[in-house]
Amino acid sequence: MIRVDSRAGRPPSVARESPGAGPETGLGTPLSDVVGREPLFVPPTSTVADVALAMREGHHSCAVVTSRPDGIVTNGDLARIVAERRPPDTPVEQVMSSPVHALPSGAPLIRALLLMLDEGVEHVPVTRGGLIVGVITDVDLIRQQSASPLLVADRIRRAGAGGPRDPALADLSSDLAGVAAALLADGVDGLRIAAIVASLHDSLTIRMLELAQQDLGPPPGPYAWLALGSQGRMEQLLQSDQDTALAFAEHTDDAGEYFAALAERVTDGLAAAGVPRCPGGFMATNWCRRLDEWQRTFHGWLDEPDARSLLDAQVFLDLRPVAGELDIGVLDRVLARGRNRPGIQLAFAQTARRFAPRVRRFGRLRVDRLPPAELKLRGTVPIVLLGRLYGLAAGSPERTTAGRLRAAATTNLISADTADTLIDAYAALLSVRLAAELGEDVPLALSAPRRRELMGALRAVRSALQASALTHPGTG
């Protein structure tokens, strides 16, 4: 029989129950206010059978393995072990996940939510002083929100009886809108909500790929499904369209035909689920190539740039693999050469400055009648373009706009204050755009403080664009 581990340094058991505060508990609440009783600790030499028995008797959905570093084993792991017909005397250290994805007790609930979505986990250990003192589960988080993104993610994983066009996915867009509205009402900023929306679209894409491969059979070789644009940056709002590509390593003569069919099915499935096709044609149906062809394409963008290739290059700077086993690191290395291409950087800077917020009489920026489309073109778009510019100039592999701006500050291309101001402005502008997508009469419906925040965000964008003329001078 397994006993709770008592190795030195473990805090005493507090047997604390989850407060179960319900939806009114905000996602800014620290994990320490939500974490339940002390978890089950087991030594790494415990057998799978003993751990399963201890979990059942203690009504635990997981056990923390006191290895170095700590590990975790869950009900899902035990089910997999049974399916694989492993012997019951298998040491738990052979089947645990380690190291664990842990968060400090002072971290807000939103961080646990993002971690679960990003890593596809259902249990997040909570630490205090470097020691695990509890575990937050997906059930704990769902209790805090009636419209939980975890419920939507679970629905996506379970769908598939009708193939990529399963009716269960037909109204996914309304579910996403409900999630976004709940998060916005809970005070979560637009940048974090956009990351959650992108994560759910990742889950949807992975499920579509699984369903398509059930019909087409296993792929003939490694491939990578790539997210571009806002999904690639993890900054996707509700009305974003598909921006995708596919790279594959050709091992057989029919590889091209297979992956073209795969791209077609997934693109159709995403459209049926409410993610519209890209009007500009940036979809895997049009951008499905062998990896060596992608290398030549990327080299061409850098070595012989023209207006069209610069547009394509900007979109592909955001590429991020969503699924597949193909290593696309070679493409990142090609793109990193843009650090030594001042001509391309200048073109990017000139493009960004074309989207500067417009000044009214006496140099004022008015927001009381600014349509939502202008908030994108004169607000979020130039910040994204500046992020791409400075990320490229810094040689940074970061894909998020915030990550690129911070990398630029680290390399002294911009000040840390400028980076923070632009990131805050980006989050505020995304929040307002999201409110408009949810049906609010923006900006007329904004409170006076929010209008002032919006005004400050647009001023920050304009100042940053003017400063870019110093680091990357030129007209455009």
TrEMBL record:
<dbReference type="InterPro" id="IPR000644">
    <property type="entry name" value="CBS_dom"/>
</dbReference>
<protein>
    <submittedName>
        <fullName>CBS domain-containing protein</fullName>
    </submittedName>
</protein>
<dbReference type="InterPro" id="IPR051257">
    <property type="entry name" value="Diverse_CBS-Domain"/>
</dbReference>
<feature type="domain" description="CBS">
    <location>
        <begin position="35"/>
        <end position="90"/>
    </location>
</feature>
<dbReference type="InterPro" id="IPR046342">
    <property type="entry name" value="CBS_dom_sf"/>
</dbReference>
<feature type="domain" description="CBS">
    <location>
        <begin position="96"/>
        <end position="152"/>
    </location>
</feature>
<keyword id="KW-0129">CBS domain</keyword>
<dbReference type="InterPro" id="IPR018821">
    <property type="entry name" value="DUF294_put_nucleoTrafse_sb-bd"/>
</dbReference>
<dbReference type="InterPro" id="IPR043519">
    <property type="entry name" value="NT_sf"/>
</dbReference>
<dbReference type="Pfam" id="PF03445">
    <property type="entry name" value="DUF294"/>
</dbReference>
<dbReference type="Pfam" id="PF10335">
    <property type="entry name" value="DUF294_C"/>
</dbReference>
<feature type="region of interest" description="Disordered">
    <location>
        <begin position="1"/>
        <end position="32"/>
    </location>
</feature>
<dbReference type="InterPro" id="IPR005105">
    <property type="entry name" value="GlnD_Uridyltrans_N"/>
</dbReference>
<dbReference type="GO" id="GO:0008773">
    <property type="term" value="F:[protein-PII] uridylyltransferase activity"/>
</dbReference>
<dbReference type="Pfam" id="PF00571">
    <property type="entry name" value="CBS"/>
</dbReference>
